[in-house]
UniProtKB/TrEMBL annotation:
Domain spans labelled CBS: 7-63, 95-151
A Pfam family hit: BON
Transmembrane segments: none
Gene3D superfamilies (alphabetical): 3.30.1340.30, CBS-domain (3.10.580.10)
Protein's name according to its UniProt entry: Histidine kinase
Species the sequence originates in: Teichococcus rhizosphaerae
Coiled-coil ranges (or none): none
PROSITE patterns: BON, CBS
Ranges of residues in domain BON: 156-224
Keywords, ordered alphabetically: CBS domain
Amino acid sequence: MQVKSIMTRDPVVVPPTMTVEAVAQLLAQRHISAAFVVDAAGLPIGVVSEGDLIRRLAPSAEETGLGWLARQLIDRDRAATQYVRTHGRQVRDIMSADVAAVEEGASVREATEMMQKRKVRRLAVVRGGRIVGVVSRADLLKAIIAEPDRLAGPGPDQRIQQAIIGEMQRHPWGTPHLTGVVVENGIVRLEGYCRSEQARQALRVVAERVEGVRGVEDKLEISPLHDYALYPQI
């Protein structure tokens, strides 16, 4: 699934010269939490959010009063930048200049990875450098619901079993040498041992993710003190 299939088209964009009061009213009227800032050519140069606006309500350290020693040690350039962000009258004064963007043809997985890496709540979707949409965390959740992650295609019980065992072998918490996987008519029965309660839950999720699985029966026993060294990994 591509980003362009889940993005919100024609997102709200604002010029850097818009006043802070005007952008605050715009966000409230449109019931959105942020807007991208574009230059005269329509290229994204920043994003202004509710957080940028709310930050203006919190007094800075300088405004709450600094002692003589603190004034000598303070980073003056940083303090000046902070003053602009909390007292500036235009969007360009308060916006975040770092825009996280993704091409419209990118996959949903790529967008998710970028959002996590950049630690942002939304991505600008671009075509030729210009914003054509926006994708948010909520959009990604809808994509997950519409197209759940699957490990294997439909198949008989043996293919389901192989998919589960193969996934266990890929992870350090997996114990394919101690955990039995029995599949009958799409019902998976996990039996034997696992390392911990966390591993038990992970094994359940592994089984549930495989397409064709109709149910999972957990018969596992937790044996954290088991000498796993006696059982080499398969």
